[in-house]
Amino acid sequence: MQKTRFTKFSHVSRAIYKGGIFRTSIASLTFAFTGCAQSIPDGPVTAPTTEAKAVNQRVIDKNGCGPTSLMNAYRFGSPAWHVGYDKLGANIDSTNKQKFTDLVNRFGIHISRHNGMVRWDKRNGISTPDLCDMANDYQRSRRTNLPQLSVYTHFNPSDEANVTLLQDVHKKLRNSMLKGFPPILTIKRFTQRSMGGFLIWKQVHGHFVTLYEIPGRIAPEATSFKIKYVDPWGGRILTGTVKIPEQSFYAIDSTLSKNLKFRKSPTLVVDFPHSSLGRHLIRKGERNVAILASSITP
């Protein structure tokens, strides 16, 4: 589960490689994580380690979708990213639960620099910026030599969701996959609810999943694209759709540090028919929508 409280974070953060963080050379990093210039396939782009077994949060922690999705990104990523999974726990043979516990107990207990609260807790889970910070702290502390991860908002900076936004999001997610890291997607559900005699939009649920497959190309005029994703709730590979919204709604970009306000149809929506995504929290007759809020990528 993802925390629903608003977080303070820059609109778009970029990975910055500072001297001393990585012991390997820039040349070796370029080879290890990007390889030679890659062509864009006409068919699907699939997670580099397709045979990996997904970590199932249901047998670990009901609110552990964030740390579990990070573990799945390490497992399904290219061999260079496997060290992220291997260095969790006391040793390489630690169980998934032991690795999860190591991650949240050592790096999730720190106070968030975004909201002043603990990064991860069993009741509320973790926010997207805190998940990214936790991952980067872990990677540095364990000397994994992995690139820094960053949060990218998928809210349109000015207008409503449109074809250009769909193309940009597709390119961002696909390129991360081509470079060896399956992006971690932040999914949120908003509903229009009657409160105090007024109809207002509010967030009722947040969830993390890991991208498994995305089309290599989409048509310039496309209004949607199909994906496969690893849902940590059950550890299953499922199919869904990312698309431009057909009906209006209101949502807020909680990765912003200021100007926190609800905007009309500002981002893409998802149709994940095989994942709950908080549907049980929707009251009869309420309008609701599941959105692609942001992603974590190198």
User: What is the strand content?
Assistant: 15-25%
Shape label: globular
Main sheet: strands, sense, barrel: 8 strands, antiparallel
* Residue share in helix: 10-25%
What gap, in angstroms, lies between the N and C termini?
Answer: 22 Å
Poorly predicted ranges: 5-31
Name the helix and strand elements from N-terminus to C-terminus, one letter apiece: HEHHHHEHEEEEEEEE
Q: Report the average pLDDT across residues.
A: 89
- The helix-and-strand class reads alpha+beta
* Strand tally: 10
Q: Helical stretch count?
A: 6
Rg calculated over all Cα atoms: 18 Å
Please provide a written account of the structure:
This protein is an alpha+beta fold and 298 residues long. The protein has six helices and ten strands. Strands 1, 2, 3, 4, 5, 6, 9 and 10 form an eight-stranded antiparallel beta sheet that branches. Strands 7-8 form a two-stranded antiparallel sheet. Helix 4 packs across helix 5. The two termini are 22 Å apart.
